[in-house]
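=== Structure Prediction Worksheet ===
Name of assembly: unnamed complex
Input type: mixed (protein and possibly other molecules)
Chain count: two
Listed entries:
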Amino acid sequence: MKNAGTIVIVVVVGFVAFFGFPFYYNIGKANEAPKLKFDTPAILEWEKVNGKKECVEPKEFMRGEHMQLLNQWRDSVVRNGDRVYVNSQGRSFTMSFQNTCMNCHSNKKDFCDKCHNYLGVKPYCWGCHIAPKEKQS
Amino acid sequence: MKILLPLFVVVALVVIAFAGAQANLQAFFGIVVPYAAVAVFILGFIVRALKWGSSPVPFRIPTTAGQMKSFAPWIKQNKIDNPSSRLGVFARMALEVLVFRSLFRNTKTELHDGPKLVYGSEKFLWLAGLAFHWSFLIIFVRHFRFFMQDVPFVIKIMESLDSFLQIGAPLLYLTDVVLVGAVTYLFLRRVVMPQIKFISLPADYFPLFLILGIALSGILMRYFTKVHIVGVKGLVMGLLSFSPVIPEGIGSIFYVHLFLVSVLLVYFPMSKLMHMGGVFLSPTRNMANNNREVRHINPWNYPVHVHTYEEYENDFREKMKKAGLPVEKE
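=== Predicted Assembly ===
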């Protein structure tokens, strides 16, 4: 007795079912990167005053390290009571998630959620902080 | 040399991928290599499976660890360790694949003063093996959040369970720690124990280094030198939808990770890693011990000409009668 038939069926079915899953799961879904919106009133106001849109640190740094920065801010504020952040250009900001970050980025659904949902990330910011009430644009 | 050679190979692979990404060969390392690697993996797997499938299956091997089914009703059969039905075989196989049951019975042998030979239980290999394989599986499945446009609920649940201690930001995955710890143990075991070191070959060290390299590059990407993760998902989704794109500014470390995974996929079908498929073909695990219930004919038997006693007597009846020997037919 030889098992070739059974084995080939099992291997092929297994491959199609398991490894093929990401291939056929995405059929008909556009490969679109999330598009963030930087057009809240506070950001436009900042642009008018300072001449450009900018965050507390450069864009590339914020993209990769914002979670670490938020963690540092939390530790600094909650554990040490220190609310002054001096950035890499020497400018000072108040460390406050609600009043600094969310002041400009008041559009959680068009900013935070875009990438987080795209990558299946669920940050626990909103376990303590209150998410802004907004309409999906 | 048996250790250094595979280490150098893995280091060289890292350097190649890093240099390639620095030299703007993203299209090669991000598109050509992964596609080729997946093709080699699938074809190689099928070729190996076909080769195994075309070899004859031997007579059932009853070297099992429990009481065989008996005709005597008061002798209790061990239905999982010595199964006589397909269901029993399925249970034994499932236990073997999911919890490495035969490795649990692993023993160590030591020579003590006397001289005295001592056998003892040895569970660390089983424990580390189990930790390694399960965390590898969870890490693999967790990666599906990069493979699917809308991340399914199951993957999100798995991810939140894996990071439930909420250490640091991004949250520390427990499987990352367990995997690196287990692979390190599996490596040290081959170096520290003289008997194991003696029988270890480059083919034993290479997969360990390769998997450690994959794990460390992934850990580096997540916790330390960040990559442009949205770009990474864009690249992966492009590959999966067969319309590959190379997003800008992903970061070289991602290409190192991807290249090492590609090498693992290519290496897989031609190495001992094929135990992923081969475990299902273990003759002492996948066959019911029903030798006394069912007649099994050896697949490589050729027809044997049999000379029965009846024929023998027909040939020599007269001579037997003359010699006074009893015959069955007159």
